[in-house]
From TrEMBL:
SUPFAM superfamilies: Protease propeptides/inhibitors (SSF54897), Subtilisin-like (SSF52743). Its EC number is 3.4.-.-. The active site is at residues 270, 316, 540. It holds the Pfam family Pro-kuma_activ. SMART domains: Pro-kuma_activ (SM00944). Residues 241-639 form the Peptidase S53 domain. It is an enzyme of class 3 (hydrolase). Its cofactor is Ca(2+). GO terms for molecular function: hydrolase activity. This is S53 family peptidase. Belongs to the peptidase S8 family. Keywords: Calcium, Hydrolase, Metal-binding, Protease, Serine protease, Signal, Zymogen.
Length: 639
């Protein structure tokens, strides 16, 4: 595997010549220290140095798998690639640890180096990492850096002045170090709830039970507002939100064999946990024509305590209640697509990268889940890359054990509006996960009757006409990674990456909030907790929908996990996917909202949300494309 390493300059060490007793004797200088991948802070070029750092250092040093990353990625690729002699010959968790855990001699050597610099060490389970604490001077000595205080992007942090290093004798033993740079490394949920994430919200009943069933002609606006045509077309109201039976009828129509996910466990990862998660999912299922969870069908794996529960730094959604809607959507979407599948929810103790990484450790080591859906990620794939190889090690372990990892591709299109240049989001852009993009999807009683890539512009009423308000409001993430190479399975499938980067997404499902899912959640209304429903979208919806229908595929495979899905998806050019081209759907839909987000006392607001109307670098068309990948799965994906 080609590793992503930031540019690091090593000083050239000259040979030292000394004259002793008139005789010239040349002595080779010791070999230079070895840089730790991606350990130079990415913001360093625009940060400002304030002065010396005085605080203590608390860091985590991640150890390379035994044999190195190349050996691990080679096995993960072999067991995932059709035609390989090792195809789907997966390891157990115990076999993985015996083969790839760092050896005791490696642990001893690394701890000896760190302790020799005066740092205290604690070795993590299965030799994955070593936690270190100590003074700044001790860390400077150990890692060959100068840690100082800096300001950048509105933050004051302490960080090293360049790449951290190990002694040359330990080259390759450390794949990542987290904590020398104290810049918070948050991830965000990829939901698009039309309200502050911890506030109550309801949809007005001016919407269709199915796509197109409600229009201004057959359901006049409650306040008498006249809604004009949009670009010469009469548009429908948005659906009220699709339910489980509707989603199954749309994506699983024609499926034979009675597959419902029975015997398969789907893992869900998020930060924190809603105290009403299972109860809300049970009520939602019962109210919308599905069965609630049977005893033991839903379970949780939670830490002893949560941290950073009220953090909203740098605009990141890291308050505990801000994640409740994401969790609710994930559980209810998986249950909608695979009503008999087991769901195991893994709640990280915070929204920090390192804590989400810990959930993957638990999933892989428990080895009870066959597929993992993750509806969160960072903004852009060049932000805080220090943990890239630590993340990838977790995905590779999963692949060797037959566990499939799927991620939401993001809700900011090509990210150009957010970060200034086209980028993909990480971890969705990792080559060892399946990235799920978003579509705008018309679902009627007949199933899916229209579908296109999700890239939305917003129009509002002004002077009796629809007027452009936001040229790009939101859209499914996609494009080409700026720093992760295109994997072989994409090259072999003829994907032409203009910059040589990993292409995203791989597949897609409904993600547009205008055509989103109806969910039921206990929310806070005027200071009181109450259950209610609302429509929600984002690739946070697409990922659990895909995990749910793939649980049926795993069931059809005899209940045995499938591992990394991408080699199969690309080698068959998306077999079982509906190729989304966007030629069979309206220009958009009319969305009606309460002004106050809760009830009609403040009146109504009207907008048109376009379908694939925003102009970005992403496109939709025949075959693989940057908005929808190979398209959305149907019954043929399962069987």
């Amino acid at each position: 595997m080609r590793k992503r390493v930031l540019g690091v300059s090593l000083a050239v060490v000259a040979t030292v010549v000394a004259a002793l007793g008139g005789t010239g004797a040349a002595y080779a200088a010791p070999p230079p220290d070895s840089p730790i991948p991606n350990s130079t802070p990415g913001w360093l070029s625009h940060g400002s140095k304030v002065g010396p750092a005085s605080g203590a250092v608390s860091a985590r040093v991640y150890l390379a798998p035994q044999g190195g990353m190349d050996a691990l990625s080679a096995l993960a690729t072999a067991v995932s690639t059709p035609g390989s002699a090792q195809y789907r010959q997966f390891l157990s968790a115990d076999q993985y640890h015996a083969k790839f855990d760092a050896t005791q001699s490696t642990v001893d050597a690394v701890t000896g180096w760190l302790q020799g610099a005066g740092l205290k060490t604690t070795v993590g389970a299965s030799h994955r990492y070593i936690d270190v604490t100590g003074g700044v001077g001790n860390a400077n000595k150990a890692f060959g850096v100068t840690i100082s205080t800096y300001t950048h992007d509105g933050l004051t942090v302490q960080a090293p002045d360049g790449a951290a290093t190990t002694p040359a004798a330990l080259a390759g033993t450390v794949i990542a170090v987290d904590g020398l740079d104290t810049t918070p490394s948050y991830v965000d949920p990829k939901t698009q709830k039309p309200a502050p994430p911890d506030a109550g919200f309801r949809n007005p009943p001016i919407c269709g039970k199915t796509y197109g069933s409600a229009t201004p002609q057959n359901l006049p606006t409650p306040d008498g507002t006249l809604l004009p045509k949009f670009d010469g077309s009469s548009l429908p109201y948005s659906p009220c939100g699709y339910t489980g039976p509707q989603l199954r009828n749309a994506y699983e129509a024609g499926l034979t064999g009675g597959f419902d996910g029975k015997g398969v466990t789907v893992a869900i990862t998020d930060a924190y946990v809603s105290p009403t998660l299972e109860a809300d999912a049970n009520r939602y299922a019962s109210d919308n024509g599905d069965q609630p969870f049977a005893p033991g069908q839903f379970s949780e794996n939670l830490p002893n305590a949560f941290t950073n529960v009220n953090s909203t730094k740098s605009g990141h959604q890291c308050s505990m209640p801000g994640w409740y809607g994401e969790q609710t959507l994930d559980v209810e979407a998986v249950h909608a697509m695979a009503p008999a599948a087991n769901i195991r929810y893994y709640g990280a103790k915070s929204c920090l990268d390192a804590d989400l990484l810990d959930t993957f450790t638990q999933i892989n080591d428990e080895n009870v889940a066959s597929i993992v859906t993750n509806s969160w990620g960072g903004v852009g794939d060049v932000v805080k890359p220090a943990l890239f190889l630590a993340y990838e090690t977790a995905f590779l372990q999963g692949a060797t054990q037959g566990i499939s990892y799927v991620f939401s591709s993001g809700d900011a299109g090509d990210e150009a509006a957010a970060v200034g240049s086209p980028q993909t989001d990480y971890p969705a852009s990792d080559p060892f996960v399946t990235a799920v993009g978003g579509t705008s999807t018309a679902i009627t009683d007949a199933g899916v009757t229209g579908e296109t890539g999700w890239q939305t512009s917003k129009y509002v009423l002004k002077g009796g006409a629809w007027t452009l308000s936001t040229s790009f409001l939101y859209g499914g993430g996609g494009g080409y990674s700026s720093n992760i190479p295109e994997p072989a399975y994409q090259t072999a499938a003829g994907i032409s990456s203009p910059n040589g980067g990993r292409a995203v997404p791989d597949v897609s499902m409904d993600g547009d909030p205008t055509t989103g899912m109806l969910v039921g959640q206990t929310q806070t209304f005027t200071g009181k907790a109450a259950y209610d429903t609302y429509r929600i979208g984002g690739t946070s919806l697409a990922s659990p929908l895909f995990a749910g229908i793939t649980a049926l595929k795993i069931q059809a495979n005899g209940g045995t996990g499938l591992g990394l899905l991408n080699p199969v998806i690309y080698s068959t050019h998306g077999k079982g996917m509906h190729d989304v081209t966007g030629a069979d759907i309206d220009k958009g839909a009319i969305r009606v909202d309460y002004v106050n987000g809760v009830d009609a006392t403040g009146g109504y607001t009207y907008s048109v949300r376009t379908f694939n109307g925003a102009t970005t670098t992403l496109t939709v068309g025949a075959g693989w494309d940057t908005e929808t990948g190979w398209g959305s799965p149907r019954a043929g994906w399962v069987q």
